[in-house]
Amino acid sequence: MDAPPPVPPLRTQQRKPSCPVGERLRDYLRRYRRERELPVTYERLRRFAESAPLPDAAGRPSLWETVLFNQLEMESLQDGLKRVYAILRVDGDLSVMQHLYVDRIDFCAFGNSAPFRIRIVNAYNDNADHFYVKRADASRIYGLELEHVLSPNRLNYLTCGGTLVEEHIAGIPGDMFTAQWLGHREIKPIRLAKELVKFNERCFVRLLGDMRSYNFVVVVTPDFEDAQIRIRAMDFDQQSYEGRMNFYRPQFFKDNRPLALFCVKHLRLETARQYQREEQVLMLQRKAVAEERFDLLLAAMAGDLLAPAAHLHELRAALAAHYRRDAYLRCESMAALVRENLESIRLHVADPSLAPAADSTGGEVE
Is the pTM of this model over 0.90? Predict the structure, then answer.
């Protein structure tokens, strides 16, 4: 048997240490059918033979490169990746996907997950879809699950040992939306500002960090009366890691300043608080519907070291001051902080006098 081709170096720019998937989280993933046997793993895709830069749609350089495999490996990968896609989309029923083919495999060395992007095409109508194969990282998986449970968005992903497979989240990248769509006549300002407030609150309560503009997408849905807007996170690498409280509030990122100013321009403070409260109540309702799942998730999360102790202590002190609740100071894990955030908003909904401290206008995150 021939030796496998050498593995090209992965030029990964790490933002935080990778967190391995522990047994408690693995049990959780099996229980909810996230952990599956997959015919293609991340390590197998790393054995590509060569690569070429992939420009974006406008012909400009991008962070992606197209990777190539030797012919025998590519034939096997074609079949294996189709089977992965079938498991992701139709629970493995390959009989309805025989007409699909893998058109391209791209690789991005930027970020923690160093993903492979698979472009899969319908041979009958040329319709294309994408999915991603990444390194499995526990904090990212917790981010995906918390999004699935506490947000209005359902997420479809799979794990297999050290491999994570995610579906593509469609939408207009936030930085592109800010540059090209902000102020567009089809976008009703109040609807956009309302969704920005709700998105900001979801990220803050469930401690999803680094939601600068290129890490979320804007979904625009035409309606009989103007367009509906939804903002969706698409990067979950920075779940519950940083100690700075404002790192979990998109409004404080320098990249998002135009969006923050847009909200200030179009919303009265009373209206913004209304939308914030609406999202808080919805999160409590989603948690109640999935109470057992949520408890099992946080139990697994509490057993994993997702952040240094210094980050935990800094964040819990800031949250204690923000919500004016000393209960935060007894939290010994990031999972406990997420639970305490939900308890804080539950208490606030029940008694409006227990309002959080007024927001500071400073603290912008670079």
Answer: yes
